[in-house]
Amino acid sequence: MLVVALKPGHDGAIAALDDDRLLFSIESEKDSFPRHAEVTPSSIFAALERLGDMPDVIAMGGWFKNRMLGSSSLGSGYHGFDLQNRTTTMLGKEVTFFSSSHERGHLALSMALAPQPAPLTAVLCWEGNLGHFYLVDDRWNVTERFPVMRGPGGRYAFVFGLADPRFPAVKSIPRLEDAGKLMALAAFADPQSVEPAVAETVDQILSAPFLQPKRIYQDSPLFNAGVQSEATKSAAALITERIFEKFADVAVKHLPRDIPLVISGGCGLNCDWNQRWRELGHFSSVFVPPCTDDSGSALGTAIDARFNVTGAPSPIE
User: Fold this and answer.
1) List of residues 6+ apart from 296 with CB closer than 8 A
2) What's the number of CA atoms in the CB half-sphere (13 Å) around residue 75?
3) How far apart, in whole angstroms, are the C-alpha atoms of residue 190 and residue 13?
4) How much is the pTM?
């Protein structure tokens, strides 16, 4: 069975599976295209050149029609476990069109790339919008879901924009590159030595029900303080500490000990957090897929599509 899947939105990619064998995963930003590029005509033609036949299943990951406005859903949307599955005709061939949510794509990717199946696996999906733990059985059924924080990656990255004078005061959605920059700054400060006003700002960012416009924080010492200021570095270190503590507390309280932990989502690119999950000592192992962020979402959707059609969970070669 040949499955081709597309990830719309930033970090666009097209992936193809022939049964359980990965044929390719083409990221649109490669070959000197803009970073975080959406799917481009070049990536579409590159995928078509590599296909020997019309796919049996064409899949699309769920997304927003307008991410900045959080408007109506594209495909199965961003959150939840909904999917679409219908028969249609493309280029004269009857095919299955499939779509599952962005959340499901992350879960499918992490389970299929994990080293080996276990009777019960803890999956952590934390990224720009999602912040949940899941307990998943060996048939890839989600038995429990534990929401921890809405948008941990977005809150984390927002600190950089708050300190950057170039980031508009009316904006709340961080730039895609800001999380990695803040991660670098966190190494230059001690989270235990933070000025009270800076700590208050970090707490406000983490406790708000959703990200607020930058102008809300104009009285904070971080507001346009400069990305290399001591206040920004200390805030980076503190929010790194606080976010991990919130998730670790839920893990210890609600997840069984000595089961594998699989991490998915852009926060899985934070090496400090990954190391701390190992050091926590609660899990038997910790695995982070090589494409844990949205660059792996097309592959995750392809895996989910194959699983939906066959009913059989299967690792990917």
Assistant:
1) 13, 25, 109, 289, 290
2) 28
3) 38
4) 0.94
Buried (b) or exposed (e) across 253-270, using 16+ Cβ within 10 A? eebeeebbbbbbbbbbbb
Handedness of CA 27, 32, 36, 38 (dihedral sign): negative
Candidates 89, 88, 90, 70; CA nearest to 79 is 70
Q: Is the same domain home to 220 and 129?
A: no
**111 found inside a domain:** no
Say yes or no to pLDDT of 64 above 90: no
Q: In whole angstroms, what is the distance from residue 307 CA to residue 112 CA?
A: 10
Residue type, 226: G
Chain segment 84-105, per-residue pLDDT in tens: 999 999 989 999 999 999 999 9
Residue-number span of the structural domain to which 305 is assigned: 2-106+293-310
Q: Are residues 143 and 167 in the same domain?
A: no
Residue 49, domain CATH: 3.30.420
Type of residue numbered 46? A
248 burial (CB, 10 Å; 0-12 / 13-18 / 19+) is middle
The Cα 128–Cα 266 span in angstroms is 7
Last residue of a domain, one of 240, 267, 301: 240
Rounded to a whole number of angstroms, the CA Rg of the chain reads 20
CA distance 138 to 314: 10
Same domain, 77 and 207: no
| Tokens linked to 29 | 């930003």
Which long-range contacts does 42-46 make (Cβ < 8 Å, 24+ apart)? 43/12, 43/13, 43/14, 44/14, 46/14
Residue 33 three-state SS: coil
Do residue 205 and residue 266 come from a single domain? no
